Amino acid sequence: MKIGELATGSGCSIETIRYYEREGLLPPPVRTSSNYRDYDDGHVELLGFVRHCRSLDMGLADVQRLLAFRQDPQAHCADVNGILEQHIAHVAKRLAELQTLQKQLLKLRARCRKEVKACGVLQALNDRLPVHPSK
Amino acid sequence: MKIGELATGSGCSIETIRYYEREGLLPPPVRTSSNYRDYDDGHVELLGFVRHCRSLDMGLADVQRLLAFRQDPQAHCADVNGILEQHIAHVAKRLAELQTLQKQLLKLRARCRKEVKACGVLQALNDRLPVHPSK
DNA sequence: CTAAACCCTGTAGTCACTACAGGGTCAAGC
DNA sequence: GCTTGACCCTGTAGTGACTACAGGGTTTAG
To answer: Is the Cβ pair A52, B125 closer than 8 Å?
Structure first.
């Protein structure tokens, strides 16, 4: 199958598929006489795996490691689980950050609605933040 | 004050300050005879405003628009509020996405713990996703 | 006087794509 | 046989918000 077919079948763009190939996430397929990429069912499955991982917001480096585990008969389930646990922690952290953020934004909006004349929002944004020790 | 002092005072890096100047978020300060940037209190306040906006995860384009409103006596509070509302919607959307994500990841983890031998996680990740119509 | 700590410019790298530019190939209809 | 349009190719540059050098100049403390 040609790249366009694989793209519509997998729900990602042609450019993304070529990008995955460059990055080593998809093995280069055979080429037709006119240099077109010619994919088989293995590619379809592999790309499905990659897209599933990406839909869970995993980075491509993690996806690559999972792909390696799939190939490796020596790999342990614990290795797979480790990547998963790390990713769960990462998402939980970002989730907490966003929730804090949302609270602050709603507070800010409340200010604007009350003090239209002097624009409470701009005033509030002007307040300096406590400076956290940054690297 | 020199750039290093501004950096430690504001909690962002020297490179970031120079980057903001290049992007037009901070006006270029005067230079000393040895070509060092020499900042004043106006810069400190401006940078505080920018960092506060960034801590709320606003994009630099939005920050720039807010900065323009600060300068403009014609600007309406409604303009400021518009940016804020958009941003609140944006954060709410991302929050919902992450919550869905987290549920899926926890489900996935549950699989791994049960079926160690055949690694349920890798199997589950191999399941194809329903293909959403993608652009 | 020297060494460390600071500053400068300019460029390239990050991540996961996306968007061209500038070409080649193929199938259908005239 | 020729054109038109849909498809494919490579290679490069852009996105956002920085970060990380390389390769220099300046200032300050001992």
So the answer is: yes
CA B22 to C1' C1 (Å) is 38
Q: Beta strands of chain A (E only): which ranges?
A: 30-31, 37-38
pTM over cut 0.85: no
Q: Quote the pLDDT of residue A131.
A: 63
Of the candidates A37, A46, A38, A80, the one whose C-alpha atom is nearest the C-alpha of residue A62 is A80
Contacts of B44 by beta carbon, 8 Å cutoff, 6+ apart: B1, B6, B9, B10
**Where does B1-135 show beta strands of DSSP type E?**
30-31, 37-38
Which pLDDT value is given to residue A3?
Answer: 96
Amino acid at B52: H
Q: CA-CA distance, A29 to A75, in Å (whole number)? A: 26
Question: A44, A79, A83: which is closest to A63 by C-alpha?
Answer: A83
Cα separation, A87 vs A108, whole angstroms: 31
Residues in chain A predicted with pLDDT less than 70, given as ranges, are 113-118, 128-135
Classify residue A17 as exposed, middle or buried by CB count within 10 Å of its CB (0-12, 13-18, 19+). Answer: buried
Which residue among A10, A57, A112 sits closest to B81, beta carbon to beta carbon? A112
pLDDT tens digits, one per residue of B90-130 = 899 889 888 988 888 888 888 776 665 667 777 777 776 66
